Amino acid sequence: MKKITHFLSLILMLMILSACASKTSTATPLTNTPEPTLTHTPEPVAPTPEPTLETHPIYLDPEAPVEARVEDLLARMTLEEKLGQMTLIEKNSVQPKGVTEYFLGGILSGGGGSPESNNVSHWVEMVNSFQQAALETRLKIPIIYGVDAVHGHGNLKGATIFPHNVGLGATHDADLLTRIGQATAEEMAATGIWWNYAPVLAVVQDIRWGRTYEAYSENTEVVTTLGTAYLQGLQGTSLAEPFTVLATPKHFIGDGGTTWGTSTTNNYQIDQGDMQVDETTLRTLFLPPYQAAVDAGAMSLMASYSSWNGTKMHAQGPLLTDLFKGELGFQGFVVSDWAGIDQIDADFYTSVVISINAGVDMNMVPYDHVMFINALTKAVEQGDISLARIDDAVRRILRTKFMLGLFERPFPDPAWESLVGSADHRVLGQEAVRKSLVLLQNENAALPIAKDTPLIFIAGEYADNIGAQCGGWTIEWQGVAANITPGTTILEAFEATVSAGTTVQYNRFGRFENVLDENNQPAIAEVGIVVVGEAPYAEGQGDRADLALSEKDIALITQVRPQVNKLVVILLSGRPLIITEQLPLADAWVAAWLPGTEGQGIADVLFGDYPFTGKLAFSWPRSMEQVPLSALQASAEGALFPFGFGLEE
Ligand code: GLC
């Protein structure tokens, strides 16, 4: 068939050329000689050629089976085009024309990777510019654009920011996770981005890890149930739908099981460290969430920076290929983490050879695509990486792109822009906040608070700070404790909820002595709210040896205590903190985790419009002697608040 087709196109070409030639000979010469009169009957117009493989190739036929499209396209590709597909570059490191020139397969926005103007239309313009460049390549293979929409489309100002997974774990509500996945997919699709580097499927064994909040739990079953539910929300029943996106279970495998002090990255202590467990533990504690993800249709997986018994995951052929692709039957593609391949060996070429042969299919380079493609080309030419391995990687990438419908729908519909930060999504975020709250202590009937309480004091910088509510992976990689994106702070939520006759006094330093009662004395408020917790952070920058409440926070609680009758502490943190000695300082303690933009959800519950339903998905240690989890499990007195704990009033 191929031969015949070529012959036909040759004939077609000759006919077109001869037609051109005759057109050229009758063209008016620059010397202005008079037009020659036509002395012969014009050639019959060539009939429109029947669609052939050349004009309607199988790979561009949406009705054709995916595997047929994959094989047809692969057979057409040059080595350059194949290696380009295996290359994922961050958006500041390449111009759109570079996508065309090097046939790049993917572009990403890392944490904070927004366009100059951080709004929907500029995101669309940015993403579309790369996609347009991809469609200008010979075979018109669209790029896949990726982001870390780990708790909503977090880089995008105005997006709905949901609670981080540490809070969603406390909801134990799979249906809620599915709906959050759906809403996240809608806001991503509005920007033309159909690839989410989420969910994290870490089963966290040491809450000193800076990425604890990105995970649902310390418990394998909770991670499996909620991670799968979220993935199903992102991917829907068909990846080809416009409002479904590709999930990326991460970081395979055992990112949450590393040993303190084993990290070799920057000044990190446990992030990207070494998981020192036997295979049985790996399979029982850390593998089930990934098995469930594959069974639920995962088509992309991110390898972990961490190691297993001294070997980097990006070099772990037995795990990436034999276990994940072989035993679990994964048919999608494995993407490296950000420059994850570089950590394998001091020599980049060696790292590329080892990681691609181990099973990495697409390299999140993410800066120098030329260097990577040159190394890959050299490896194929020298036989260090077989063409069969390249074809396997490219098949997996193409398969996923066809399933995503990218060839049919490479661009978003501008009408979708209103989905970003929509009222419906914010109501969903508010619901998620309500269900994530865990009531740790409630004495003196401090909660719920009556809406007509005459005077309420609210203290703490984080009581009026959207950035503190959102935590890391929000607008910036590390997050920012500032007014970074539209939302409702705790203070705004309280002010919107109380009765008209109620006075809410806010002072970030907890100083209310200037609030006088009818006797011109410093007033005593019926209720005081103090918001304390962790400043935003991400990844290893959040590794902390000591999880004690800060002296500043303890001083603030102490400062407010004598000025109120009932004192409620709201804790904004990415993990349980050590509060054992501070518990008696307040009547009530509420773990609010990192709730995101919809602070109204906190007021909904604290004023009794909704009950407390959250249950701990992480054991709450009494002291650092009970960290990591293995130490707590070995301790005689047990946790301050055990896994599954949560008061309801
Ligand atoms: C980061 C993280 C990973 C993220 C990637 C792209 O370093 O480890 O979770 O998906 O880079 O931002």
Quick tags:
649 residues, 5-stranded parallel beta sheet, 2 domains, binds alpha-D-glucopyranose, alpha/beta, 6-stranded mixed beta sheet, Rossmann fold, TIM Barrel
Task: Characterize the structure shown.
By secondary structure, this protein is α/β, with parallel strands linked by helices. The chain has 2 domains: 66-419, TIM Barrel; 437-634, Glycoside hydrolase family 3 C-terminal domain (Rossmann fold). It is built from 20 helices and 16 strands. Strands 11-16-15-14-12-13 form a 6-stranded mixed sheet, sandwiched between helices. The protein has a 5-stranded parallel sheet with strand order 4-3-2-1-10. Strands 5-7-8 form a 3-stranded mixed sheet, with no helix packed on it. The protein is globular, with a radius of gyration of 29 Å. The N and C termini lie far apart (74 Å). The site of alpha-D-glucopyranose has 7 residues, from loops.
What is the CATH class designation of the largest domain? Alpha Beta
Estimate percent helicity. 25-40%
Distance between the termini: 74 Å
Rg for CA atoms? 29 Å
CATH-level-2 architecture of the largest domain: Alpha-Beta Barrel
The CATH topology of the largest domain, please? TIM Barrel
> Can you say what the CATH homologous superfamily of the largest domain is?
Glycoside hydrolase, family 3, N-terminal domain
Q: Bound compounds, please?
A: alpha-D-glucopyranose
Q: How many individual domains?
A: 2
Output the structural class: alpha/beta
Question: Strand-residue fraction?
Answer: 5-15%
- The low-confidence parts are 1-12, 14-38
Mean pLDDT: 93
Number of helices: 20
How does the major sheet shape up? 6 strands, mixed
Number of strands: 16
